[in-house]
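Project outcomes to date are best conveyed with an example. Our students and postdoctoral researchers have been running inverse folding experiments weekly, and each run begins with a structure described purely in tokens. The record below, which covers 332 residues, was selected by the lab manager from last quarter's runs and is presented without edits.
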């Protein structure tokens, strides 16, 4: 049986930078509050007419393909994680397939929010292990800023979420090579409404109306406190699950790349795992929370900064809307 290995990673974020001070001009917030509660200093938001989820993903994918030394024509399948697709129908995978000029390969969309990239990686890993595909493009990309409630009421979400894309090229290697060791996926739908975007829902007589728009049901709604409390517990559980499945100790981790939801969550997890600063990668300070984009963007930045070396044990972990949570353990 084959194993899958990340051959290259890339990322792209919109050019427009929104600082905490920029936000403080439009909603009742301030740099101190945002930095203290979330760690974020600035984030990237898209420019309408310039950036689309597809264009962000295309740029990230081209970088990942180049670094992997793989041509777009060699890719057998796309797994695209996003909860903010350019169209309601179809998904974003096909738009990326078109933009990259690929053959008529399969393209699958994954809607698992902040855990989306790890879910996508897990699916790609299974296809490679079974021998069905040899090279898969795995993408996480979002434009969250157009569905944020930019008002005092929505400020706890408005200051966190951001736009961007990351991509990884996954390839089949022999079983004795470094690669993905295991992935672990979970969900608990009883908390679906703690972090959700209600509309455009299909189970309505009219999906879109001025009344619905005015009600704010198209905006992302989050009960931040509840999400935070569940996140810290589930992060630890799912990381320990991955370590136990591979009979490894937390001290074996060379780099933990947590979903970038809140720096305090990452710091809590870091302290529980007793990892030194250099073994945990955070970029939320300048990226914000780009949902499915955060892990591949972080992987790409960590790689660029020389923080990931061949053979390193990397742990990925995420928690978010659903609730869903997931982890992956891999040798680079
Ligand atoms: O990626 C998907 C998963 N998402 C997460 O993991 C997010 C998890 N949750 C969080 O990161 C945090 O809950 C938030 C950063 C969203 C909020 O931080 P918090 O420490 O939970 O604050 P809070 O919601 O309990 O609010 C504390 C206070 C409130 O004021 P009062 O009631 O104490 O007077 C809020 O109204 O802070 C106020 N507040 C703000 N003040 C300034 C909330 N948002 C802001 C803001 N600026 N942006």
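After processing, the design step wrote out the following sequence:
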């Amino acid at each position: 049986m084959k194993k899958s290995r990340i051959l290259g990673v890339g990322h792209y974020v919109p050019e427009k930078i929104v600082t905490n001070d920029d936000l403080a001009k439009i909603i009742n917030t301030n740099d101190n509050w945002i930095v203290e509660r979330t760690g974020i200093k600035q984030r990237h938001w898209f420019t309408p007419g310039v950036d689309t989820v597809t264009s962000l993903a295309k740029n990230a994918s081209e970088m990942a393909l180049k670094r992997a030394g793989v041509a777009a024509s060699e890719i057998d399948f796309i797994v695209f994680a996003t909860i903010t697709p350019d169209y309601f129908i179809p998904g974003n995978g096909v738009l990326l397939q078109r933009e990259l000029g690929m053959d008529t390969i399969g393209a699958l969309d994954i809607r698992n929010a902040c855990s989306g990239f790890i879910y996508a990686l897990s699916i790609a890993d299974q296809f490679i292990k079974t021998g069905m595909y040899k090279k898969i493009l795995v993408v996480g990309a979002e434009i969250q800023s157009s569905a944020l409630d930019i008002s005092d009421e929505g400020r706890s979400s408005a200051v966190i979420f951001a736009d961007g894309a990351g991509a990884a090229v996954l390839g089949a290697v022999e079983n004795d090579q470094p690669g993905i060791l295991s992935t672990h996926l979970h969900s608990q739908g009883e908390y679906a409404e703690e972090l959700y975007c209600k509309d455009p829902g299909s189970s309505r007589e009219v999906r879109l109306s001025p009344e619905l728009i005015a009600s704010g049901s198209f905006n992302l709604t989050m009960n931040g406190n509840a999400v935070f409390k569940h996140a810290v517990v589930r992060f630890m559980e799912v990381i320990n699950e991955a370590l136990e499945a591979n009979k490894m100790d937390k001290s074996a981790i060379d780099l933990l790349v947590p979903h970038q939801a809140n720096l305090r969550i990452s710091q809590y997890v870091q302290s529980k795992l007793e990892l030194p600063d250099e073994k945990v990668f955070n970029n939320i300070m300048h990226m914000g929370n780009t949902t499915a984009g955060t892990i591949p963007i972080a992987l790409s930045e960590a790689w660029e900064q020389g923080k990931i070396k061949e053979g390193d044990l990397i742990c990925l972990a995420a928690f978010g809307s659903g609730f869903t949570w997931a982890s992956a353990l891999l040798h680079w």
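The longest strand covers residues 3-12. The chain has two domains: 3-173, 180-331. The training component of this project remains on track.
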